[in-house]
Amino acid sequence: MEIEPRGDDSPASSGVPGRTVGFAGEPHDVTGARLAAEEFLDELAQAAPPTAPECWHDIVLIVTELASNAVQYAPGPFELGLRPTFDGVHVTLHDTSSVVPSARPFRPDSGGGGIGWYLIETLSTQVSVVTNEAGKDVHVFLPW
What we know:
Blueprint: E1 19-23, H1 29-47, H2 53-73, E2 78-84, E3 88-95, H3 116-123, E4 126-132, E5 135-143
Antiparallel strand pairs: 1-2, 2-3, 3-5, 4-5
Helix pairs in contact: 1-2, 2-3
């Protein structure tokens, strides 16, 4: 996907503060993370509309995947961070597992699963995982 430059050196979204939201790690918190992302994107769109309609949906999908993975594979709470960047959105999810996510074979005949990490890597411009004694931070940069 090609992204048009905004025309100046300052991010149009500079007036939109980043936010961090904590969750207990329960299944319903996936919905909470999605709603937090949508609220952030509502505010961001007022300051700087997305360069393409799919940017909004891609970010919400990635947040949903990250939160789902945290609930399924990491015991305990997780924390979602969202902040505007010059040309996109930086999503950070901290969870309590220090296991680095990896793609696994997609086998729809065995109950699904296996496609989330592929989506994250495909839709983002950059992905990194930083582990520490308290778990890991997954950093995902997406176009806006």
